[in-house]
Amino acid sequence: MDWVSFWDGAHSIYVNDRHKQVHYARITADIAALVPAPDARVLDYGCGEALGAPGLARACGSLILADAAPTVRAKLKERLKGEPRITVLSPEETAALPDGSLDFVIANSLLQYLSKDVLKSLLGLWRRLLAPGGALVLADVIPPGVSAVQDAAALLSFAARDGFLPAAVIGLAKTAVSPYRKLRADLGLTMYEEAEMLALLKEAGYAPERLARNIGHNQRRMAFRAVPAG
Ligand SMILES: C[S@@+](CC[C@H](N)C(=O)[O-])C[C@H]1O[C@@H](n2cnc3c(N)ncnc32)[C@H](O)[C@@H]1O
Question: For the whole model, what pTM was predicted?
């Protein structure tokens, strides 16, 4: 099994419905705050279930949701068919978009599931798709040394604040014996030092900066904003 098959199948990464709702509410608010203009053409790459997509679409001109998992895309298309400003695309369809057709690209909690070579080729794609003045945000990037235990602690404090602590404790126990845990052990998660990410972005033709805050609840992870340079 690889990571895309994991996300394509039934998984219990969200400990309950409340966890999923508050996760997407939080990341949607954080992403909407980074959208550069109310008419921006936005791409959410590796969007997952995108429960906040209608709200995010109201904060921009148009929203493309791209995900590699076919089942995820099929559900999004069904759920969002009444949303004229939202389009759901595969990675291949996204790669066929015209140059300069986007103003903002967000990839949240995606990079840990990609090899460094795949990330390099995506940085090239997003650079081509961004119009002058556009911006890319890479968020929830995991630095080396953040352990599964620290991720669990971040989830528990999020759960305590948002009222799903008992479910989070049970969910973590389930995750410990789940396919996620096995895949994390077998395939690993791709991690980046801050300096490595800044260098990769520069090499790919961006002027990057680390943002003061990550998107979502886990502030041990990092967010970067990068604008096409030159
Ligand atoms: C952890 S989920 C993140 C979902 C959402 N962005 C969030 O922050 O909650 C990762 C998503 O990335 C997708 N994904 C993994 N590899 C991908 C790739 N190479 N291209 C596009 N999407 C990918 C998975 O299918 C999954 O839906």
Answer: 0.93
